């Protein structure tokens, strides 16, 4: 869920010429003045518009708040005729074409949100149909259709299938289910990173432990999505790593690895070069949801308590997807997101949504700043993206090794 994962890093990856296809629509990136009024957040939605909108709607639903109809309508209007979703389409009335870069993560997140809200069966059925059509032969999914399977994408799709009433284990290609793909992406119980999930295999076929992928993998292996109901797990802390032959054992191994990676205070550390001693708020929130999904209430509560004391400023800086992620962590532990260390997360998230008449947004302020042609805003925006990637922002991208192999 990292904020799964905000896809601002995908923009940075695209700029840096990474191998992964950029998850961008062919439409030009909107200026701040052109941002849709129904969209959550005031930053460029080209790479994460549908993702952050979906998390915002899902989080409000989890908190018992009804999202604005305009916000829901904007999300459903982003769907292409084949059922897929791109991160952002500036003109939803224009048909999607071969240049429209749709992806599995945006599509699966939209399914999870709309299924939770209810009343959008036609949209979710088409989206699930598209997801099934791009399943890889190993049973998993990559970020883009045809890309090599990765733990994060496979897991968020599992969550979408479950939310839509499907049985993920019965969704197969060439006899392989998504659980088969996840089992193939978990590290063995010997050596460094025992029991963790890798994002994708390295070029030599080896697997490297990845905390973001591990939190996602635990949820996926349990057949759960981003919305985890409290008290639904087995109530037992993960034990030592045992060779996994079932998805449930793989989830237990992954949870045990995450427990071992936590600091004494209960949070994960960033792995970005230069930031190793900095807390990773997004991945810690992911871990809370993963622990809660298994029923490891003691560990989930400890890590959530740390977030409650330390993560409010991070969410304020990171935007609606971060608020949503913390709300979902609160929901998974049975905590009150309206009293998050004195911060009302739901109120803050709603304030980032459809603007009230006359409301001044950060987008408006940025537009004013950009009137000065000598402004270095463009350079510092890119630097900011990289910094955000370094501190970890949720289920989609925090500390994820972003490389899709052909």
List the helices and strands and how they pair.
Elements lengths: L7 H8 L33 H14 L6 H8 L27 H14 L3 H13 L17 H13 L14 H6 L27 H11 L25 H15 L19 H14 L2 H14 L1 H7 L1 H14 L11 H7 L10 H8 L7 H15 L15
Helix pairs in contact: 1-16, 2-4, 2-13, 4-5, 4-6, 6-8, 8-9, 8-10, 9-10, 10-11, 10-13, 11-13, 12-13, 13-14
Would you kindly provide a written description of the structure presented here, covering whatever features stand out?
It comes from Streptomyces variabilis. Keywords: Membrane, Signal, Transmembrane, Transmembrane helix. The protein has a single domain, classed as Glycosyltransferase. Helices cover about 45% and strands about 0% of the residues. It has helices spanning about 10-15, 50-60, 70-75, 105-115, 120-135, 150-165, 180-185, 210-220, 245-260, 280-295, 295-310, 310-320, 320-335, 345-350, 360-370, 375-390. Helix 4 (about 105-115) runs antiparallel to helix 5 (about 120-135). It is globular. Residues about 5-25 and about 355-405 have low confidence and may be disordered.
In short:
The protein is mainly α.
Largest sheet: none
What is the count of helical runs?
16
Characterize the overall form: globular
Q: How many structural domains? A: 1
- The value of Rg in angstroms is 19 Å
- Helix and strand composition category: mainly alpha
Percentage of residues in strands: under 5%
Q: What's the CATH C level? A: Mainly Alpha
Instruction: Give the overall average pLDDT.
Output: 84
Share in helix: 40-55%
**Low-pLDDT residue intervals, each spanning 5 or more residues:** 3-26, 356-406
Q: Care to count the β-strands?
A: 0
Helix and strand element order: HHHHHHHHHHHHHHHH
CATH topology: Glycosyltransferase
**Termini gap:** 24 Å
Task: Just name the CATH architecture.
Answer: Alpha/alpha barrel
């Amino acid at each position: 869920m990292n904020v799964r994962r905000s896809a601002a890093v995908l923009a940075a990856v695209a700029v840096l010429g990474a191998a992964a296809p950029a998850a961008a629509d062919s439409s030009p990136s909107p200026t701040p003045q052109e941002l849709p009024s129904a969209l959550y957040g005031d930053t460029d939605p080209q790479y994460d518009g549908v993702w952050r909108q979906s998390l915002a709607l899902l989080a409000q639903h989890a908190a018992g708040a009804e999202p604005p109809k305009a916000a829901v309508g904007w999300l459903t209007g982003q769907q292409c005729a084949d059922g897929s979703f791109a991160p952002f389409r500036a003109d939803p009335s224009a048909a999607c074409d071969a240049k429209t870069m749709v992806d599995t993560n945006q599509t699966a997140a939209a399914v999870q949100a709309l299924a939770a809200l209810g009343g959008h069966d036609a949209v979710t059925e088409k989206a699930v149909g598209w997801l099934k059509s791009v399943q890889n032969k190993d049973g998993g999914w990559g970020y883009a259709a045809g890309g090599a399977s990765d733990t994060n994408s496979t897991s968020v799709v599992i969550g979408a299938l479950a939310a839509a009433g499907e049985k993920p284990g019965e969704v197969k290609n060439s006899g392989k289910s998504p659980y088969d793909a996840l089992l193939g992406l978990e590290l063995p119980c010997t050596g460094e990173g025992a029991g963790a999930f890798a994002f994708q295999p390295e070029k030599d076929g080896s697997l490297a432990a990845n905390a973001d992928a591990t939190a996602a993998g635990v949820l996926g292996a349990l057949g759960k999505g981003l919305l985890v109901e409290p008290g639904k797990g087995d109530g037992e802390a993960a034990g030592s790593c045992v060779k996994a032959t079932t998805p449930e054992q793989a989830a237990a191994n992954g949870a045990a690895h995450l427990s071992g990676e936590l600091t004494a205070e209960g949070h994960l550390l960033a792995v970005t070069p230069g930031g190793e001693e900095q807390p990773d708020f997004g991945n810690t929130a992911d871990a809370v949801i993963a622990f809660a999904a298994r029923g490891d209430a003691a560990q989930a509560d400890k890590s959530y308590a740390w977030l409650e004391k330390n993560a409010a400023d991070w969410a304020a800086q990171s935007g609606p997807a971060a608020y949503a992620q913390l709300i979902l962590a609160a929901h998974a532990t049975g905590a009150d997101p309206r009293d998050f260390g004195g911060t009302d997360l739901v109120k803050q998230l709603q304030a980032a949504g459809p603007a009230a008449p006359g409301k001044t947004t950060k987008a408006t302020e940025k537009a004013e700043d950009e009137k000065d042609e000598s402004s270095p805003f463009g350079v510092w925006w890119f630097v900011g993206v990289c910094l955000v990637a370094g501190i970890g922002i949720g289920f989609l991208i925090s500390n994820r090794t972003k490389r899709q192999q052909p």
